[in-house]
């Protein structure tokens, strides 16, 4: 882990910048994060849409 704080990446955002923020925080490829969210939403693993919205709203409120 790194000592940086999580933030939304609005410059590379498609919707709210959550996936690009996660990718920047963990230094991963943003496309892998986006594909993971889409697959999770399609296959109904947990509640990825609600999780995405919660992360986006909480991170933008800071």
From TrEMBL:
Question: Where is this gene product found?
Answer: Cell membrane
Q: What superkingdom heads the lineage?
A: Bacteria
**Membrane topology note:** Single-pass membrane protein
**Protein known as:** Phage shock protein PspC N-terminal domain-containing protein
The cross-references to InterPro entries, in alphabetical order and at most eight, read: Phageshock_PspC_N, PspC
Please tell me where this protein is predominantly located: membrane
Q: Which residues cross the membrane?
A: 35-59
Domain Phage shock protein PspC N-terminal span(s) in chain numbering: 8-58
Q: What keywords tag this UniProt record?
A: Cell membrane, Membrane, Transmembrane, Transmembrane helix
Species of provenance: Blastomonas aquatica
């Amino acid at each position: 882990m790194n000592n940086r704080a999580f933030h939304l990446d609005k410059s590379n955002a498609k919707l709210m910048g959550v996936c690009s923020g996660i990718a920047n925080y963990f230094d991963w490829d943003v496309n892998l994060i986006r594909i993971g969210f889409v697959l999770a939403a399609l296959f109904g693993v947990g509640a990825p849409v609600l999780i995405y919205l919660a992360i986006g709203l909480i991170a933008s409120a800071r």
